[in-house]
Write a structure and sequence with these properties.
Elements (H helix, E strand, L loop, with lengths): L2 H15 L3 E5 L2 H12 L3 E7 L6 E6 L1 E2 L2 E2 L4 E3 L8 E2 L12 E6 L2 E4 H7 L3 E7 L1
Antiparallel strand pairs: 1-3, 2-3, 4-5, 6-10, 7-10, 8-9, 8-10
């Protein structure tokens, strides 16, 4: 299974179920995606816990008036089909959301990628 899609779906499902936080296995890429979500107000604080092989990410979930901050996620790139976009091709997320992009300067939202004038692999769309 794709670990990135698993991470995003776990976050979405935990919010729908009303959990305060979600625990995931740690990787640098997952941590960077979580930081992009945190910077745009979709999740709360992120903590790395444990050492070496037992390292985990604890992500506090955010709610607005008891409604989940994330109402939907669409995965764009998959292991079998990677989707890349140049700066000119980057679009704003639907319904006021964001597009998460992996660029040579790190993982960031599509808006930040346009400001820094870099393109990259489109990971997911969050609204």
């Amino acid at each position: 299974m794709d670990p990135i899609s698993d991470m995003l779906i776990r976050i979405k499902n935990a919010q729908i179920a009303g959990h305060e936080m979600v625990r995931l296995s740690h990787s640098k890429f997952k941590y960077e995606i979580a930081r992009a979500l945190e910077a745009n107000g979709y999740v709360g604080t992120i903590e790395r816990k444990g050492k070496r092989i037992k390292r985990i990410l604890e992500i506090a979930l955010r709610y607005n008036n008891e409604l989940p901050a994330i109402s939907g996620i669409t995965l764009i790139s998959k292991p079998s089909n990677r989707v890349y976009a140049s700066v000119k091709e980057l679009h704003a997320g639907r319904k006021g959301g964001i597009v998460i992009v992996s660029t040579p300067k790190g993982v960031m939202s599509g808006k930040d990628a346009r400001k820094q004038k870099v393109g990259g692999m489109l990971i997911a769309e969050v609204w």
